[in-house]
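Bug #77: duplicate submission created two jobs. Keeping one. Sequence:
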Amino acid sequence: MRRLNAITFKQLRALSQVCETGTISAAAEMLSLTPPAVHSQLKALEEIVGCQILKRGAEGFEPTPEGEALLGAWRISHSVLESDPPDRDIVQGAGRNGCSGGGQHRQVFRPQAGRSAA
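Kept job's structure:
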């Protein structure tokens, strides 16, 4: 069974940099890592998703369709994390621990029918 919840931002960032630069060495330099460390992140990511995420192209490494899907997830996650903080009035109106609604939590992501959340 695939453990997609085991994917880390470090792995997605490594994938993104390799696709942007075309090489593991250049990505490693951009990330202040060694090439073997970047390769390990990519290998772990491929093991988690259970398929190849990069292929060699004329200009260096390119994402496979599965790699593109992971890059899409990275872009969304990264843009959310890099966005401006929420509106001050909304934050001030939040309850304890930044939650509103009297401590009730709502599930944001739901597994599709027939699929496990883990």
